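Please complete every field before forwarding. Incomplete forms are returned to the sender.

SECTION A: IDENTIFIERS
Entry label: holo-1079
Bound molecule: flavin-adenine dinucleotide
Molecule representation: SMILES string

SECTION B: INPUTS
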Amino acid sequence: MNDFRVLNTRAPRVDAAAKATGQAKYADDFKMPGMLYAAILQSPVAHARILHIDTSKAKKLAGVENVVTSKEAGLIRYGVSPARYDETIFAHDKVRYVGDEIAAVAATSMEIAQEALSLIKVDYEEIPAVFDMFEATKDGAPQIHDEFPGNINAEVHQEFGDTEAALKSCDLVVDHTFLNKRQDAAFIEPHSCVAVFDHAGKLTLYTSTQVPHYVMRTVAMTLQIPVGNVRVIKPYVGGGFGPKCEATPLEMSCGLLSKITGKPVKMTYSREQVFLHSRARHQFYAEMSLGVMNDGTMVALKNKAVLDGGAYTSFGIATVYYSGSLLGGPYKLKAMKYDGHRAYTNKPACGAQRGHGGVAHRACFEQLIDMTAEKIGMDPVEMRLKNIMTAGDMTVNELDMSSLGMKECIEAIREGSDWNNKKGKLPKGKGIGMACGFFVSGAGYPIYRSDTYHSTVVIKMSEDGGVANLLTGSAEIGQGSDTAMAMIAAETLGIPLENVRVYSGDTDYSVDLGAYSSRQTLMTGHATKEAAEDLRDKIAGFLAEEMNVEKSGITFVDGIVKFDDAPGNFEKIRTSYIKEHRGWTDQPSGEFLTFREAARLAFLKGGTLVGTGKYKPHRLGGSYKGAAVGTSPAYGCSAQIVEVSVDLETGQITVDKMTDAHDCGLAINKMSVEGQMQGSLSMGLGECLFEEVKFDSRGRVLNPSLGEYKIPTALDMPNVRSIIVESNEPNGPYGAKEVGEGAIMPTIPAILNAIYDATGVRINELPVTSEKLFMALVEKNRIV
Amino acid sequence: MLLPNFEYIEPTTLEEALRLLSDMGGNARVIAGGTDLLVRMKLKIEKPSQLISLRKVPGLNQVIKRETHGVSIGPAVTAADLARNEFIRDKFAPLATAAGKLGAPVIRNRATIGGNLVNGRPAADFPPACMVFDAILKLKSATNEREILVGEFFRGPGETIIEPNELLVGIFMETPAPWTGGSYIKLGARKALEISMVNVAVMLTLQEPLGPIVDVKIALGAVAPTPVRAFAAEQYLMGRHPSEKVFSEAGAIGVGMCHPITDHRGTMEYRCLMIETLTSRALNLAYQNALAWKP
Ligand SMILES: Cc1cc2nc3c(=O)[nH]c(=O)nc-3n(C[C@H](O)[C@H](O)[C@H](O)COP(=O)(O)OP(=O)(O)OC[C@H]3O[C@@H](n4cnc5c(N)ncnc54)[C@H](O)[C@@H]3O)c2cc1C
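SECTION C: PREDICTED COMPLEX
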C-alpha cells in the first residue's frame, strides 16, 4: 500500500522495557539529599469566611521547616484562561469548596508534615452553600464569587443560520434531554511533584503533568520568578486524561516552600486529594431539538447546556464553548443554535477530560438521532449515512473537515458487527446500537493569546553518527507520543527506529504546549518531521560536497545512503571511517554507505549537527465570538456499534461486544492507535454504566477512592474489534491526525442506543445502574 | 494516606497469640490478611497500638476434611484457597462461589474467611455462605473456649459477639446430605471488585431426585444490619415439591425478613425487589445442582 519503513507499523513502545521492569521513574520516586515533605491543608467546609489562621503551633513542631499561607504566597490570581483568572494559591478571604487550599507545610518527614496540618487552627464563619447547578443560578442563591453575580461563570450564545425558521420548515422535530454525572479521570498516578530552588535562583519542578509549558508559565507568574528561571521536567506519568492539564496548588506550594527553605520539597496527593482537586469531567445538562425531513435529512439543531463548574473556572470557558461547537459535525446541518452557561457551585472545580466538553452533548445528540430515525422508520445507520459530511465539507459553524473518513467508519462497523443481520432481529433483552463522533487534532489556538509556535523540536546527531537525539517539550503521559515522535524522526531520516532516542517533557528542550486536545501527533509530529528534514538536508549537503554529486539525488532509507538509487563512489569516506575506528568490532560494511558514516562525515565537516523544526496552525475558524474554540487543523472521527444483554429481572447490563472504527489519518503506530481506541471505550463505558462522584449534603465527596468510585474492571470490558480507517489528512504530518479523544465520543450513546434496542427504555441520566434501568422497566410495564 | 504507628508482633504458637491478646487488652488487634484492618487504620477509624499477626501461628490456614462427616476450615484460609479447593467446590459450593466473587484476585490472595466473619459487615460475602451450612465457629481465649452457631455470631454492622481477647480458631461445617445442591448469587454494579447490593446463599436438599424438599436454608446479605436467614421462606418450602412457582413464592416471603436501607449503592425499594428475584433464582439454581448431585 505505501512504502513506509517505520511508520504505519505495530511498533513496540520505546518506553516499554523501562515501564515493565520498574526502571521508569515517576515524580514520587524522586529522592534528594535534604528533601522536605510537604502537605496541604484543605478546607473541611464548603463555603465559609476565613476569620483567622493561626500557624504558630504548627511552626513550633519539631521537624517543621516552614508553613505558608496566602500571607507568604501573595494574592496573584491565576487560572487556565487569562480571561478568567479566579484562583489564588491559597484561599485568603473565603473557602469555596471542601478541599479549597488554605496552607502548606514543609517538614522533614511526611508524618510530621501531616501532624503539622492538624496543628493549624483556622476560624471559619460558615455561610450558606449551593451544590446544585440549577439552584446556583436562582435568585437568592449564595454568591460564590463577588465578581460573578448569579454564579454565572461563563455563558455562550451562538446561532448559525435561522434555527427557528429552519425548525418550522421541518416535517418532524424531536426533543431530548440528558444529564451526565461529574466524573473523575481515575488516572493511576496521583499528582506528585518535587520542587528544587537552587542557589542561582532557578526553580526546577519534577511534576506529573500533561503540560510542562503551561505549568512553567503559571508557576513563574504566581511565584514571581522570571520565566526563564523556571524549568519544568515531566518524568514518566501514569495517565492524565485532562485533569493534569493545568498548574496545581501542589506545584505552586512546593515551589514556594523550596524558594523559602532553599531545600528540595516534595508533595504527592492522596487518592482522596485527587478527587478533591478534581478538574475532571463536568456535569452537563443537555436539552436539544432536532428537526428533520421525512426522508431523514437533518435540517436544524437547537442545543442548550448547563454545566456544573464547581468553585473555580479551570478550563470551564473552553468547556462550555465545546458543548456547542462540537455538534456542528459530522452531519450536515442548515442551522444550529446553542445557548450554554456554566454555573459556579461549592464543589471542586471541573475542567477538561478526554473528549473535552463534547461527550455529554454528543451522547444526547446521537440518542436524538436514533429517536428520530425510529419515528420516521429509518435504519439508524442509514439515517447517519444520509447526512454524513465528507472531506472538504465545512460545518455550519465553520469547522473545516479537511479529511473525514466518517462514511468509511460507519460502513466498516456495519460490516464488522454484522449490523444488518442483527438490528431488529435480536431476542428480547439483547440489543444493538450505534453512534458517531469527531474531535479536534489539537486546538487551533494556544490557551493564552499568542503567536507562539505550538511546538518546536530539536534533533541533535551524536558525534559518531549513530544516534539521533530528539529533544522536545512534548509530554509522554502513557499515550505513546515518544514512540510516535521517534517513528516520525526515523522515517524522515531513513534510519531504524532504535537509532532515535527521545528526550521529552522538559521545558528546557523545546517549546511544546503539551498533551491536551489530542494535539501532539499532529503538532509535535509536524515539528519533528521538519527538524528531521532539516537534519537530513544538512547531512545530504555535506555528502554532496564531499562526493561532488547533486544533493537532490541523495536518499536515506533503512540506515543506508543511496546516490541516484545506486551505491555511489563512497570508498574514501568508508576508508577514513574505518581508520578512525581501528579495533572496533562494528565497522560499517556492505555495498552502500551507511547513515552512520554519512552523519560522521557531516560532523567532521560541520561540527555538532542539529536540525530544528517548528509548527503552528494556519489561521483557522470563523470571525464570530468564540469561533476559535473547536477549530483545529484536522478532525479525527469515529463510529461504534455496541451489543448488550440486559437482565430484565434485575436491570443488570452486560456489554457483550464493541465494534469500533476510527479515522486517524495515517496510523503512525497501529498498536498505539488501537490502544487509544480501546482505552476510550473503557472510559466511556465506565462513565455510562458506573461512574459518578457523589457528594453528601454538605459538599463532601462520598466516594473518594477507587473502591467506591467505580471504573470498569477487566471483566466489565467486552472484546473490542478495533478497525483503523485511514484517510490522508492534508494538514497532518504524513497525513496523521488524532485518536486519543475522538474515539470516546460515540461510546456512551452507542451503549444507550443498544440498551434502548434491548429494552424499549430510554435512559436520559447517567450512570445507567441496574437499579435505574430496572425501575424504568417497571415503570414502562406499568404504563403499557 | 499513612498508617498510624503500631507495634507488629508475630507469635509462633496459638498459646502465645492468645496470651498476647489477653495481656494487651483492647489496644491490640489481630491481623490476618489485613485487607479490612489496614484500610480502616489508614482511614484512622482504628488506631490499635499492637497488631498480632496470625501468619506464623501453625494450623490456622488449612482446610481439613474431617474423618467424621464434615470439614474444618482454619480462619486464616484465604478466599483464593477456598475458591479453588476441590472438596469445598464439590460439597460446599456456595462457599466456594462466594470466595471466588470476593473482591478481585489480589484481594482474594490475602483476604481470609476469619477476617471476613469477624469484620461483621452486613454485605460481606462469606457470612451468608456459612449460614446455610449452619457453620460452628470456635472462639478461644487464653482461659476459655466456646463454640457458637454462625447465625448467632453477628450483632450489627461491624459488630459480632467476639470478645477482644478471643481468637476465632476454626470454622466447622457438616457435609450436607445426599441430593443437596447449593448456590450463591451476588448483585453489584461491576463484575468484580464489588460490595454486594444484595447477596443470597441457598442450600437445598431433596428427599430423592424427584422428591420433595426435605431441607433448605436461605441466607441473605446487605438487606439488614446483619446477614439474615429467611426462616419463613424456608418453612414454606419444607416438604414441597420444587417448582418455579414455589420458588418465586419463597422469594416473596423472603423479602419479609429483610430491612434493607437506602444508601449510595441502592435504594431500599430496589433491594427489596431484588431479594425476591434473586432468592427465587438462587433456589432454582440450587435445585438444578441438587439434581446433579454425585456422591
Ligand atoms: C479492594 C477490596 C475489595 C474487597 N471486596 C470484598 C468483597 O467483595 N466482599 C467482601 O466480603 N469483602 C471484601 N473486602 C473486605 C475484605 O477483603 C474481606 O472482609 C476479607 O475477608 C477480610 O479478611 P482479612 O484477612 O484481610 O481481614 P483483616 O483485615 O486481617 O481483619 C479483619 C478484622 O478481623 C479481625 N480478625 C481477623 N482474623 C481474626 C481471627 N482469626 N480471630 C479474631 N479476629 C480476627 C481483625 O482483627 C480485624 O478486626 C474487600 C476489601 C478490599 C480492600
